[in-house]
Structures are given as structure tokens and as C-alpha cells.
Automatic annotation (TrEMBL):
This is Peptidase M36. It comes from Fictibacillus aquaticus. One of its GO terms (cellular component) is extracellular space. It comes from the Bacteria. GO terms for molecular function: metalloendopeptidase activity; zinc ion binding.
Length: 499
């Protein structure tokens, strides 16, 4: 927040520090010095108005303050439209102790049109719309603030309210921009300072990290020396600071009500809070990985994950609530990063193509993509050959007799349409092997980028062949088609066409 100064308030009185060996300045001396600094800064900006895209008379700038330090003087201005602030747009001029202008930093954004609000929204209505958008109406814990001003969008000054809300859920302070005429929420900003915590997890599961099944058993969530030996200490990034496992990309809902005042979450698997930490860490890591390979618009949100709330041996993503749920039957699904990643895959596809998987083949592609995401995540977390082409080793120990145990494999060499049985998980192994072979040929990052890019080309009823064609097209868009021959070969081996 800042206080607007009118044209008559260009001189302010500041309490300057008294330096050793100096004489304290009187208020009149301070006023003269501040005024001189502003005059010199004004003069510099007027002479360089074209460079900084300013009006030569500096209209559209309102003086904010002058800051004196031992080394330099800093004069700050606010961009305005019709006397109201253009939010976040300021200009500063740096002067040396002799008053010479050294530099300017300008956020000033020119505009050619001012959008008028036909019927200006009341401040309390703007606040209500912002709170509703955040889902924070019932949990606010501090007086909220709102302020009228403008943003510059595509050369137009748009009238908005900047509403600052304080809420319990989503925790902390949020800044929401509401159109002052239509009431539409234009954007929001998380003002909370994120903190990092630490915790213990399996990386990605005890079978993969140990490289064998020797000595590992569920025993109804019991601890053992062999299992505890596979615990890894990790950094839990982006926590909101409220002591809970709530952060930038994950919001844990659990009967365990896990919390830690010092953000240390060290538990073993006999403690249900362990699964909460597993889900937070691995989902957060997956979202950060997706952003690291160039996508900041895929499921970029704090997804709610329900842990230890469902007793069956199953996990799922709900398109209606946009939430994940992890079951506790058998080995708790939340103890296996491959299962966590698989379910996140469904959320990713629904985010990119709402309603994805409406057809039989689309549903199988969804399961196959989840297995691909889980298997490649496991491979990257514990790069050894023991769990290659297998997903969910630890989860599967209670129902699979293979070595390693597998929920599903990605190397069964199934071919379309010969091996189609019209069951999405089984038919998904056709698709997952194509994607997994793509990662083997091009590397995990390149393959994942191609797959994610291709999803936007698809529809809810897309077929295997649509998916294969979309991946080849994504390679053309991202890489100029340099992997076309390899993509053709990989999908042809699965009986699919890329043309």
C-alpha cells in the first residue's frame, strides 16, 4: 500500500539518520534536500522521456518518496491513470550525493486506450468476488484490503480492484485483481513467502531403491530394519508456512492432520503421517519436473490429495472434484511413488483435455500414460535395472509373484489390434510401451515433452492412432521433426500409424 500525494505535496519531511561526526539536519534543511533531489530526478526523466517512453511533462507519474542513504539518493514515482495507480508500475531514479542522476529503472507501460467501467463495482462486491474465486470466504482471519486502480493489458488501461485477502484455506495472503466493471477475476497472486521443510520418504519405493525384494514385506504397515534402511531424507519445497503439508502444488487432506511447527516431517511407515509426506514430496517433485522441461501451464495448481481416507486397495482421480485419493488396502498406495505418479497422470490429462478418455482407446491411453509417468519417474529416482519397464513394485508385493513384483509392465510387446481385450488397464500396456520405448530412444525429458505437448492435440474420444500422430506432430513443432523416423518405428512396432 502507498499514500497518494497530490500536486501540492511534492515535498516530504523525512527523519534522516545522524552519522558519526556529522551535524543533524533541521527539518527545513531536509525539505530543501528532498525537494532538490526530486527536481533533479524530474529533470533527468524529462530529458530522457523518449528513452523511457514517458510523457515529456511527466504526466502519468506521481511522486512517491525520496530515500536518503550514505551512498546515494533514490527518488521513486508511481505510474497513474486518471490519478489512480497502475498497479506494480513504478519508476526510480538514482542520484549520487552531489545530485547527479546515475540511472533510472522504469516499469512505465504506455497505453493508447482507457477502458471505462460502465457501472463501477462497489469495493465490498469486489472483495466478495475475490474471496469466492479463492474459495476463501469462510476462512478469512484478517481485515481484507482493496484498492481501485488500473492494469495495462495489450495497450489498454483496464480499471480493476486489487483485493488483498487473508485466508486459512488457501492459507495466507492472496492478491486478486477484479475487473471494476464486470466483476470478472482477471488474475491472482500468491503473496505468501514459501518455506522449505524436510521429511523422510521412500525413493521411489523400497524395492526399487534396494534393488531386490529380500527382507521386504508389508506386515500390515509394520516397520522393519530393512524398510527403515530405505528411508531417504528430502527437502519439502514450497510449504505455505502454516506447519501443514500445504504448498504451491500440493494440499494434503488426511485423517492424520499432519503438522510440524518447525517443518520437519520425519516418520516411518508405521505412522500414517508417513504417507502424507510421501504424497506431498512426490507430487510436488513431479510438478516441478514438468515445469523444468518447459511447461508452466499443465496442472499448475495446488492439488488436493486425500490420504488415509479410503480403505480399499485402490486409488483414483476424480474429474468432478479435481482431487486425488489414495487407498490403504494391502500396501498403502501412498507408499509407492509409481502409484502416486500414475494417479497424477490422470489429473494431468484431465487438465489438458477435460473429459479425456471417454472412448475405450482413450481410456487405455490414459492408463498407459499414467504407467509411463510412474515408470519413468521411478527409473529417474532409483536408476538401476531392477525395476525397469515395471511400475508399482512395492504396491504389488502383496499380489504379484514376479520378481520384481509389478502392478503392470511396459515391455509385453502387445500389438494393436491383435492384443486388444477391451479392458483399459490391459490395453493401456500397448500405449505405455510405445511411450516407454520413446523414452529409451530419446531420453526421458525429450519423450515426456513430446507426450505432454501432444495431449493438447487430442479430444476426449481420441484413439491410439490419433495419439501416435499427435506425438509425431509434436516432434515437428518442438524439434523440426528430427525424431520422425524413430517415432514411426516405435509406434509401428505397436501396430499404430503415425500418418
Amino acid at each position: 500500500m502507498f499514500k497518494m500525494l497530490g500536486s501540492a505535496a511534492l515535498v516530504v519531511t523525512l527523519a534522516l539518520p545522524v552519522y558519526s561526526g556529522s551535524t543533524e539536519l533541521s527539518p527545513k534543511m531536509v525539505q530543501a534536500q528532498v525537494f532538490d533531489a526530486k527536481v533533479k530526478a524530474d529533470d533527468f526523466l524529462k530529458k530522457n522521456a523518449e528513452k523511457y517512453k514517458l510523457h515529456r511533462d511527466l504526466s502519468g507519474l506521481t511522486y512517491l518518496n525520496t530515500i536518503e542513504t550514505k551512498a546515494a539518493t533514490y527518488v521513486r514515482y508511481q505510474q497513474t491513470v486518471n490519478g489512480a495507480p497502475v498497479f506494480t508500475k513504478q519508476v526510480t531514479v538514482t542520484l549520487d550525493r552531489s545530485g547527479n542522476a546515475l540511472m533510472a529503472v522504469s516499469d512505465y507501460t504506455p497505453y493508447t486506450k482507457i477502458e471505462e467501467a460502465k457501472q463501477k463495482l462497489a469495493k465490498n462486491d469486489a472483495e466478495s468476488k475475490a474471496a469466492k474465486h479463492l474459495g476463501a470466504a469462510a476462512g478469512r482471519w484478517a481485515q481484507d484490503k482493496n484498492e481501485f486502480g488500473y492494469t495495462i493489458e495489450n495497450g489498454t488501461a483496464v480499471p480493476v480492484y486489487k483485493v488483498t485477502l487473508h485466508a486459512e484455506e488457501p492459507f495466507g495472503a492472496w492478491e486478486v485483481y477484479v475487473h471494476a466493471g464486470t466483476g470478472k477475476v482477471l488474475k491472482k497472486k500468491d503473496l505468501n513467502q514459501k518455506v522449505n521443510g524436510t521429511g523422510q520418504v521412500f525413493m521411489p519405493n523400497p524395492i526399487e531403491s534396494q534393488g531386490s525384494v529380500t527382507g521386504l514385506a508389508d506386515n500390515n504397515d509394520a516397520d522393519s530394519a530393512a524398510l527403515n534402511a530405505q528411508l531417504k531424507t528430502v527437502t519439502l519445497q514450497g510449504l505455505s508456512g502454516n506447519g501443514k503439508l500445504t504448498g504451491q502444488y500440493v494440499n494434503i487432506y488426511s485423517k492424520s492432520k499432519t503438522s510440524s511447527a518447525n517443518h520437519v516431517f520425519n516418520y516411518t511407515r508405521s505412522d500414517n503421517r508417513f504417507e502424507d509426506v510421501m504424497v506431498y514430496y512426490h507430487l510436488d517433485t513431479l510438478q516441478r519436473y514438468i515445469q523444468s522441461i518447459g511447461f508452466n501451464n499443465i496442472n499448475n495448481r495446488s492439488i488436493t490429495a486425500n490420504v488415509n481416507t479410503y480403505k480399499k486397495d485402490n486409488s483414483f482421480y476424480s474429474p468432478s472434484t479435481k482431487e486425488l485419493t489414495f487407498g490403504t488396502g494391502g500396501v498403502d498406495d501412498a507408499e509407492d511413488a509409481g502409484i502416486i505418479a500414475h494417479e497424477y497422470g490422470h489429473s494431468i490429462q484431465d487438465n489438458q483435455v477435460p473429459g479425456f478418455g471417454n472412448s475405450a482407446e482413450g481410456g487405455a491411453m490414459g492408463e498407459g500414460f499414467g504407467d509411463f509417468l510412474g515408470a519413468t519417474y521411478e527409473d529417474a529416482a532409483a536408476p538401476n535395472s531392477f525395476g525397469s519397464a515395471c511400475v508399482g513394485e512395492w504396491d504389488a508385493i502383496s499380489y504379484s509373484s514376479s520378481n520384481p513384483p509389478c502392478l503392470r509392465r511396459l515391455d509385453k510387446n502387445k500389438v494393436y489390434p491383435r492384443d486388444v481385450v477391451n479392458q483399459v488397464h490391459a490395453d493401456g500396456e500397448i500405449w505405455s510401451q510405445g511411450l516407454y520405448d520413446l523414452a529409451g530412444a530419446l531420453g526421458r525429458d525429450t519423450a515426456t515433452k513430446l507426450v505432454l505437448q501432444s495431449h493438447w492435440s487430442l479430444t476426449p474420444n481420441a484413439t491410439f492412432n490419433d495419439g501416435a500422430r499427435a506425438i509425431k506432430q509434436a516432434d515437428q513443432l518442438l524439434n523440426g521433426g528430427r525424431n520422425a523416423a524413430k517415432i514411426d518405428s516405435i509406434f509401428a512396432a505397436r501396430g499404430l500409424s503415425t500418418n
